Amino acid sequence: MCLYPFVWKKFIPWDTVSYAYVRTYGISDFGGWGYRFGKDGRAMTAKGNQGLQLVLKDSSKILIGTQKPEEVQKIINQYKPYKDEF
After folding, report:
1. Consecutive sets of 10 residues in the chain, 86 residues long: mean pLDDT of each?
2. Cα 10 → chain centroid
3. For the chain, where are the E strands, in sequence order?
4. pTM (2 decimals)?
5. Using CA atoms, how far apart are residues 81 and 62, in angstroms rounded to an integer?
6. Residue 76 and residue 22 in contact, taking contact as beta carbons nearer than 8 Å
7. CB 46 within 8 A of CB 6
């Protein structure tokens, strides 16, 4: 998975993900929009309150904001269709 439109490219292989899900977050969770650090890990957001939450096998967390949560859920289901895969 590549994260765009950020200046850098960050690749997160699926085999490093413990689990992933779409969630609602508040602006106070990370202190604003952009590339942020908060009590729930790192976040890359632009607007809105929906995001893809990744929990990696090293226990780190990354939230990636999205305006298309339904499409993100379809991708999660495609790559990790069974809950016990995570």
Report:
1. 57 87 85 76 86 92 92 87 54
2. 12
3. 17-24, 34-38, 41-45, 50-56, 61-65
4. 0.76
5. 20
6. yes
7. no
